Amino acid sequence: MQEAKRVAKSTVIYLFGSVATKLISFLLLPVHTQYIAPAELGYYDLATTYILLISSVLFLDIWSGIMRFMFNHQKLEDRYSVIYSGLVLFFSSTALYALLFFGITLFFPVQYKVYVFLYGLIICVQNLYSYVSRALGYNVLFAASGALSTLINVGLNLLLLTVFHWDYRALYLSYISGILVQCLLLEGKVHLLTRFRRGMIQSSLVKQLFRFSLPLSVNSVCYWLLTGYNKVVISSMGTEFNGYFAVATKFSLVLNLLSSCFSMAWQELAFGKSGQDAGTAQFYSKATNLYVKFLFCGALGLIPLVNLAFPYLVDPQYQSALSIVPIYILATVAGILSTFLNSILTAYLKTTSIFYCTLFACLTNVATVHLLIGPLGVQAACISLLLGYLVGDGIGIYAIKKQIPFQFDTKCFLYMVPLLVGFIFVYNRYGAIANLFMTLLALGIAALLFRKYLAQIGRIFRRVRSSRKTNK
């Protein structure tokens, strides 16, 4: 119970920061789709996809390794020793990143290359500060700084696009400025730049972090082949199709929002639980099965809501994005589950297993997207991504079962799959009234599946109300 409360508390804290970040960014859709043409938005999305590949590979996902090793120590000095040992790898990666990026741009011209370079670098700096601040327990500051970062991002977006009439470079500058402010705020608390002392870097720890993080770097390549490669394939049809795809992916933001908040809180708890006893197995099994139901209900409700909201949020020039959304939502659900399962494997230091999950997922994705892109167009990117994640999830569950007696409930798919197919059919064939009915139906299904927990919440509220009356 104490662990559940800890996850719930952290989730609420992260939700506060992420709601502002994701929701306000989502509400920028009308501005982006009105002031930026599909081809330009598609080019921006493609450029950021390439730069994320380069940066994520070279930086080894070192922030995950730092956070994981920090949880091995109780003393603050020992934790900072982990941080500074990790920074040796981080700064080495920064130098390689700069050399490789500007070397590539000598042969392949990139529009607004300085903005693109800073975009990739600032994301890595943000990841570093975010993971360190969370590991040190500064969750509230992390959430608040994320909210402020978003406000700056949104303000600059509106100013540069609607007042000064910039093109899509406004997206780069706005994002970089917002993240820079967040990192400066976090630096004021974690003091990465000022706390360093001689002797805090341990060569043995640098080697351990490198060995731990190297598979994660290779995993990043596979992950890019899973999530980014499809955008490259789509670009062969024209960057305007990348623009449609980019808009369609925004609607899964709601699921990503809720799941990312929970995942950050869950990650902190999971990294501290790596026992192989029956209690740990039961804990992970129950949490996973409950999470699957939560994601199912989220997708079920989101699909008809998108149909209702699309005309009000997206400019007519992006109408082609509407049909792409439902399958991408399903792919997002499968991807969220993959992240959840990987956090369990990370707790057991099974980064090699994570690599195999992602490897087979990306191979499935790459193979199927080339087979389907001709007959299905952009929709092929969503279907292949969904299939890839499902393969990865299956391998992840198998890998966890090799560590603990993990019980995954497969019977739930007997009702989940038919319901999802039915909801997508209504989404594509019928209008607002039918989709409004499906939204209400989704709420009813969610209430039925979570009736036990809703009853518990009701009892808690009644107790609180009763105690207040007694105190009066």
Ordered list of secondary-structure elements with their pairings:
Layout: H1 2-27, H2 29-35, H3 38-58, H4 62-70, H5 76-105, H6 113-135, H7 139-163, H8 169-190, H9 203-227, H10 229-235, H11 239-250, H12 253-270, H13 278-313, H14 325-347, H15 351-376, H16 379-401, H17 413-429, H18 432-449, H19 451-471
Helix pairs in contact: 1-7, 1-12, 3-5, 3-6, 3-9, 3-10, 3-11, 4-5, 4-6, 4-9, 5-6, 5-9, 6-8, 7-8, 9-15, 10-15, 12-14, 13-14, 13-17, 13-18, 14-16, 15-16
Description:
82% of the residues lie in helices and 0% in strands. It folds into 2 domains: 36-227, no CATH class; 232-472, no CATH class. The mean pLDDT is 88. It starts with a helix and ends with a helix. The longest helix is centred in the middle third of the chain and has 36 residues, at 278-313. The chain has helices spanning 2-27, 29-35, 38-58, 62-70, 76-105, 113-135, 139-163, 169-190, 203-227, 229-235, 239-250, 253-270, 278-313, 325-347, 351-376, 379-401, 413-429, 432-449, 451-471. It is mostly helical and 472 residues long.
Separation, N- and C-terminal Cα atoms: 30 Å
Number of DSSP strand runs: 0
Enumerate the spans where pLDDT stays under 50 for 5 or more consecutive residues: none
Number of domains: 2
- Principal-axes geometry comes out as globular
Major β-sheet profile: none
Tell me the strand percentage band.
under 5%
Radius of gyration: 23 Å
